[in-house]
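Translate structure to sequence.
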């Protein structure tokens, strides 16, 4: 079922997209002691992605606190549909959890019919953090700023191209928000993975690319890529000299890449509460906080209810953008 790593010590239709956050169903009067054995955390995208990295950091102390191993299983496929569906259909007993992220929206914008309801089949537990996406280009392109890139795109409409890790992926959505905000015309080139997309950008065969900061910072620092802007409202501490898209004149291009834990919606509230508490303790540990900061992630201090609302809003905004730019879902 994909790669597995063990740690001992993260729409059925338009009407559903406007439904309230997934409600917690009532739990039995008493819940057996939990946990008593291994917890499986399903990641719906390939191994080594940005969310896997922050999941590894946060789950290590969580597993020690809970007294059982947490195993991450990567189950990619269908823009995340395979992994999401496995969690949606899992027993709501706290032993199958989801390492979810902004890529939750991929399945929604790609498919008219999903085997699960993103808003009502999952309950948000805790966000592990959020990272800016960084707009990068190869030095050979000669772009020194966002203004340079936009000017080149407007001088030759349709001549520039941008990469993504696939239609509907976070890198695609970030780039589309940028394209709509700037009013440029550029060609989308989807790849099968972030690694493939990044390699083509470094080689100069792709003009620009949005990717999570953690994945691009070493290439920027080594001079293999040039960072033109970050997608968040504030500058990234790891790239203090790189302006935000708003500072570049395009606040509508802001985009947040986030990751966190979800469970099947009928999971008892006391289990959700325990996962939240242990996750919060883990994130407050100096070593964990330092590790996530070095990866470019900043805390998202939210309760499960606040995270659920944030998730629903993020999903709705992505679906709205997908319609605006003409991403047509298929069966």
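Result:
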């Amino acid at each position: 079922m994909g790669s597995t790593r063990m740690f001992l010590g993260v729409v059925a239709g338009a009407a559903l997209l406007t439904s309230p956050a997934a409600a917690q169903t009532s739990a039995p009067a008493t819940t057996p002691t939990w946990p008593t054995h291994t917890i499986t955390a399903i990641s719906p995208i390939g191994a080594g992605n940005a969310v896997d990295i922050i999941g590894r950091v946060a789950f290590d102390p969580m597993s020690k606190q809970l007294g059982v191993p947490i195993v991450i299983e990567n189950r990619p496929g269908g823009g995340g549909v395979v992994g999401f569906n496995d969690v949606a259909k899992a027993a709501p007993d706290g032993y199958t959890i989801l390492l979810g992220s902004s890529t939750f929206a991929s399945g929604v914008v790609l498919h008219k019919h999903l085997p699960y309801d993103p808003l009502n089949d999952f309950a948000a537990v805790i966000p592990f953090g959020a990272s800016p996406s960084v707009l990068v280009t190869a030095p050979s392109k000669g772009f020194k700023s966002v203004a340079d890139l936009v000017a080149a795109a407007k001088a030759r409409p349709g001549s520039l191209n941008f990469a993504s890790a696939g239609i509907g992926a976070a890198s695609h959505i970030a780039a589309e928000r940028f394209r709509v905000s700037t009013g440029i015309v550029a060609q989308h080139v989807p790849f099968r993975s972030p690694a493939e997309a990044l390699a083509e950008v470094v080689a100069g065969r792709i003009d620009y690319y949005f990717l999570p900061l953690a994945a691009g910072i070493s290439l920027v620092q080594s001079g293999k890529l040039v960072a033109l802007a970050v997608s968040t409202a504030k500058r990234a501490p790891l790239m203090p000299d790189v302006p935000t898209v708003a500072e570049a004149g395009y606040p509508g291009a802001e985009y947040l890449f986030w990751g966190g834990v979800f469970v099947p919606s009928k999971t008892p509230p006391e289990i959700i509460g325990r996962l939240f508490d242990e996750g919060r303790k883990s994130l407050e540990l100096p070593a964990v906080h330092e590790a996530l900061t070095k990866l470019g992630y900043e805390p998202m201090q939210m309760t499960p209810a606040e995270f659920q609302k944030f998730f629903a809003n993020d999903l709705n905004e992505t679906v709205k953008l997908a319609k605006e730019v003409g991403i047509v879902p298929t069966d």
